[in-house]
Design a protein that fits this description.
heterotrimer, A mainly alpha, B alpha/beta, C mainly alpha, A: mainly alpha, 0% strand, elongated, C: globular
Chain lengths: 293, 259, 340
């Protein structure tokens, strides 16, 4: 009997999740997110025009043939918004996965090994936290040179510490629990106990954090592009499209639709993440059972 | 009888927790309510104060001075709470607000219910703190709960409960969270206050040892029903119900005592 | 010694240590990144001439080894010298003195609005949990944290200024009006202090839209956090004990629940202030708000190292001060922190 408690604690984590999926807010979030994924994949089939072709009248308001209007170069905004999904969504997901990996690994190492490894990593995280994200990311992006890849790296620099902190806290909490201690006493290696005992307990909260972070990452990434530190023209990146709308702000449609695209994607993942967080956070769940004033 | 509970039924989210509980509390008497966790003894105590959890429904009658507490509007009930019926909770570490001074917590409901002025309330609070044997009562008034030990905190909680001279005191496992060494002191205090002030005390506990030390009457609950009720000596020495016998037999001290 | 004073001194010492860390980070960050400030500041033709490049480097101390550069930098800092901006050719400290108050006014107004509305909404949501107000506030606050600030700024500018002409346009004050005597550097406060009501009205009018745009995110954030903090406290034994004492609901809410909930709320408010500072970079551009966000943006894109370091330092220190304030508030609210 190597691990008598394992099934019980796995169930504890997974049992609460399915309920969350049935919440209306989560369903709305999933539907919007899937719709955007479909648009991203099928943009070449769905888009009525070439996103780069300057073939329509310039700054035409929304109307037949160009339902979201055209920009100052005569490009179809609807098509550009659709193609924009292919730029922003994969990059954002990649960014969050990388933050989870980098932050999670560093945080787990900090929590598990403690002492100077942990101290060094966490002080580094503290220092990143000492600066407002956009300003730090902006400086990093500017220093690396304006490009979408560098913008992603810049966001990564400011995004990992959150995961490091959460993972470290969770790992430290789990590390002291009896089943981990007993595993160590039975002679299992540190790596095994990290993988078998600790990992399943931190995945839930990290997943929730990552879901919520997809929104934050997209906002930051498109913000950098808006500042001209990310995607370069003529790329149909949403933040850059909003920026191009600033110059012609009386043609409201140029900036409005790409902004709405960002808003809906971020909102979808926030709806989802918020529901998942409620499902996972037992302290909130406990409070709900008590009576209001 | 000071307080009598008749045929109290409580459902929470459709599940029946109490299935018709009858209890009588008399002046100057300690009524012990025993039973394992989940038997409904805590719910019985909370029902008296109308503090049942969200989504509960209570039926039956809880009469105090001719009124049925179950039917009282919130405003009236708030006058009963703290004023006529007071409660002491299990863990004084969590039932006292950590950021309010002892003095604040002991005087605020006095001032609200009894309309006392600041100085009067303070004088009475210091007197009460002395009565529950807090050393240096006057200094204790301005201190915070975390500056006291567990046993002292529970004494403070008792002083708070007694502040408005209630007729009924519900003590929900008042010694469970305390060190064994201070349990006896808190129980003696409760017993003494009950005799001195003529309180009707409902002592909820799973600990039959505690029960035998201070209770006049004992009721035993199981699955939302009172299965046995009577004078302490009778219930603890010659139990009628097999469940009471089982409870008694599970006590190591009881077995020793019997030999 | 007074325990609160001792607590404060401990906190200030930690803050000083962190401030030193910030100088190190700003320095390392601006020197280890691969961007080439020489290329960014000298034209193509000048770059081809090694003599000009060398002269420029030695003028800016860039020919010395890094540790020496850092020492020079810190020495300068101690004398209030933040270097000279390569863009404006003015001392960075002068630039900052001009731009920081504008941003602080904007962010300060936004955090005030966020605290008032966010806490109020959060409390309402918690008390009406799982009922209509809670659901509505939940959706609204999630929308609030999902809106791209830079886009919202543009929409607000278009709708309220361009279309409806309800709000004044860009800048901090009406073009024809002269700014009030700088006392705090915050136009609204200065106008009040000098009793110039028309200036105050103009400054406040200019402040409203950008501050609200900036605050939307933090209102949403604080609403969600306040809700869960209040729910958490509502489940505490001491709240039930307070109810058992027969205290009126309002007393319980303000004295028992909010007092405890305030601890996590001010933590988040401190973090929220950081995100407001972030937001200023995006919002200031749209409203032509002459603040540190725009200055940071211009310095970053032109790799104006002294200016970037100055901004990093000031922003880091502002952050530290906010954290210090949060710590002090902890000490005031929670006696367990103060009386350890």
């Amino acid at each position: 009997m190597s691990d008598p408690l394992a099934p019980a604690r796995r169930r504890r984590l997974t049992a609460r999740l399915p309920e969350a999926w049935r919440q209306p807010l989560a369903i709305v979030g999933v539907v919007i997110a899937i719709a955007w994924l479909v648009i991203a994949v099928a943009a070449p089939l769905l888009a009525p025009h070439d996103p780069l072709a300057q073939e329509l009248p310039r700054l035409a308001p929304p109307g037949p043939g160009h339902w979201m209007g055209t920009d100052q170069l005569g490009r179809d905004i609807l098509s550009r918004v659709m193609y924009g999904a292919r730029v922003s969504i994969p990059l954002t997901l990649l960014l969050v996965v990388m933050s989870v990996l980098v932050g999670g690994l560093l945080g787990a190492a900090a929590g598990y090994f403690g002492r100077w490894v942990g101290e060094t990593i966490m002080r580094l995280a503290d220092l990143v936290f000492a600066f407002p994200t956009v300003i730090l990311a902006m400086v990093v992006a500017a220093a690396l040179g304006a490009s979408l890849t560098n913008a992603v790296l810049a966001v990564l620099v400011v995004a990992w510490p959150a995961y490091a902190r959460v993972t470290r806290g969770l790992v430290m909490g789990v590390r002291e629990r009896e089943y981990v201690l007993s595993g160590r006493l039975l002679g299992f290696s540190a790596w095994r106990s990290l993988r078998v005992d600790v990992l399943p307990n931190v995945t839930g909260p990290i997943l929730v954090l990552a879901t919520l972070d997809i929104g934050t990452a997209l906002l930051l990434l498109s913000g950098l592009s808006f500042l001209g530190l990310g995607a370069k023209p003529p790329s149909p990146e949403w933040g850059a499209m909003v920026a191009s709308g600033v110059e012609v702000f009386d043609s409201w449609w140029v900036a409005t639709f790409p902004g709405l695209a960002i808003l809906t994607v971020v909102l979808a993942f926030n709806f989802l993440g918020d529901t998942l967080r409620d499902a996972l956070d037992p302290r909130t769940a406990r409070a709900i059972k008590e009576r209001a004033l | 009888m000071t307080l009598s509970i008749t045929d109290l039924k409580v459902t929470i989210g459709g599940k029946e927790i109490l299935k018709g509980v009858d209890l009588e509390l008399g002046e100057g008497r300690v009524h012990g309510l025993a039973g394992e966790s989940g038997s409904g003894k805590t719910m019985t105590g909370l029902a008296v104060l109308g503090l049942l959890p969200h989504g509960s429904r209570a039926e039956g009658r809880i009469s105090l001075g001719g009124r049925n507490l179950l039917g009282l509007p919130d405003k009236e009930l708030n006058k009963v709470r703290g004023g006529e019926v007071a409660m002491v909770f299990q863990d004084p570490a969590t039932s006292l607000h950590p950021m309010l001074t002892v003095g604040r917590q002991i005087t605020e409901h006095m001032r609200h219910h009894l309309g006392l002025g600041k100085a009067e309330a303070r004088a009475r609070a210091v007197e009460l703190l002395g009565k529950v044997r807090i050393p240096g009562a006057a200094e204790a008034f301005g201190r915070y709960p975390h500056q006291f030990s567990g046993g002292m905190r529970q004494r403070i909680a008792i002083a708070i409960a007694l502040a408005c001279s209630p007729k009924v005191l519900i003590a929900d496992e008042p010694t469970t969270a305390l060190d064994v060494t201070v349990q006896a002191g808190v129980l003696r205090l409760l017993r003494g206050l009950c005799d001195e002030l003529g309180l009707a005390v409902l002592l909820v506990t799973h600990d039959l040892g505690v029960m035998s030390a201070v209770a006049d009457e004992v009721s035993v609950m199981k699955d939302g029903l009172v299965v046995e009720s009577g004078p302490r000596a009778k219930v603890l020495r010659e139990p009628d119900h097999p469940y009471t016998r089982a409870l008694l037999e599970s006590l190591p001290e009881a077995q020793e005592e019997g030999q | 010694m007074n325990p609160l004073a001792r607590f404060l001194i401990r906190r200030i010492l930690v803050a000083v240590l962190l401030a030193w860390g910030i100088t190190l980070v700003t320095f390392v960050l601006t020197n280890l990144v691969p961007g080439d400030p020489v290329a960014a500041n000298l034209g193509q033709r000048a770059l081809g001439d090694p003599a000009i490049v060398a002269q420029w480097k030695s003028e800016h101390g860039l020919d010395k080894p890094l540790p020496e550069q850092y020492l020079m930098y810190v020495q300068g800092l101690l004398h209030g010298d933040l270097g000279e901006s390569q863009q404006s050719h003015r001392p960075v400290s002068e630039d900052l003195a001009e731009f920081v108050p504008a941003t602080l006014e904007l962010a300060g107004a936004a955090i005030l609005v966020s605290l008032v509305l966010g806490v109020a909404f959060g409390v309402v949501a918690a008390l009406r949990r799982d009922r209509l107000p809670d659901h509505v506030l939940r959706v609204l606050s999630l929308v609030g944290i999902s809106v791209p600030t830079f886009w919202l700024a543009l929409v607000a500018f278009y709708v309220f200024f361009y279309r409806l002409q309800l709000t004044p346009g860009s800048g901090r004050i009406d073009p024809g009006m002269s700014a009030p005597e700088p006392i705090t550097g915050l136009h609204t406060i200065d106008a009040l202090l000098t009793g110039q009501w028309d200036v105050f009205a103009s400054a406040a009018g200019h402040l409203v839209t950008p501050a609200l745009v900036l605050a939307l995110y933090t209102i949403g954030l604080l609403t969600r956090f306040t809700r869960s903090a209040v729910l958490e406290v509502l489940g505490q034994d001491y709240v039930r004990a307070a109810r058992a004492k027969g205290l009126p609901g309002r007393t319980i809410l303000f004295r028992y629940v909010l007092r405890s909930a305030l601890v996590p709320i001010i933590t988040v408010a401190g973090l929220a202030f950081g995100s407001l500072l972030s937001g200023t970079v995006l919002v200031e551009a749209i409203f032509a708000w002459p603040g540190v966000g725009q200055y940071a943006y211009k310095s970053a894109t032109s790799l104006d190292l002294p200016a970037i370091m100055g901004v990093g330092l000031v922003v880091g220190v502002v952050y530290l001060v906010i954290n210090l304030i949060v710590d002090v508030l902890y000490g005031i609210i929670d006696p367990r922190v103060r009386l350890q």
